[in-house]
Predict the structure.
Amino acid sequence: MNRITIAIDGFSSTGKSTLAKQLAKELGYVYVDTGAMYRAVTLFAIRHGHIGGERSNGEALVKLLPNIKLHFEYNDDLGYSEMYLNGENVEKEIRGMDVSKHVSHVAEIEQVRYKLVEQQKEMGKEKGVVMDGRDIGTVVFPDAELKIFMTASPQKRAYRRYKELLDRGETVTYADILENVEKRDYIDSHRAASPLKKAEGAIVFDNSDMGLKEQFERIHNYALRIIAKT
Ligand code: DC
């Protein structure tokens, strides 16, 4: 059976990665979380003092880009790949509020996008990949056989994220999370370089009032139909 490319884009906390992981597992495909790559670059920038507090120095970060090596490593126990920055597992650190606050600004830097998009194209060149992000159907794989654009109300998304962070033991408020979600939506969809938008031919999926099981079944069915025709 032929393998296809599945591109999942959409706003933050729409459950893209949960769905993409599940889909990849079911189809025996590779899952790539491109948001993790932008988050890892952001962590690198914070650690080197180029972003955070009042400071933000994109130029200094761009000069250091050749020193940033990213790779994913599959974790058998978790059933998905984890993000490594220069050989260090940074999966936990890149999900915290500090990185979330700055990542949209790092993702606006054209040279950062160029570097990561090249690596993403390479990772998906054999097909059999489910990749999620903001520009997968528009820039990374405009020819993907299946493109999904996921959305949900900012309030629902903030609430999901709030619960996720509380479960992980972080001290956060719902108001802070909602503000962060709305700010990121704005920056992600208004930036000059590869803004978040629905790709041509993408299926729009509003999951404000849809459970995970239903979402998975619908998208899995789309995928199976396309695979059968390919
Ligand atoms: O999906 P996420 O919330 O982990 O993504 C983190 C940030 O990275 C988000 O603000 C948008 C940006 N991003 C991007 O610009 N392009 C991608 N392909 C993936 C993420």
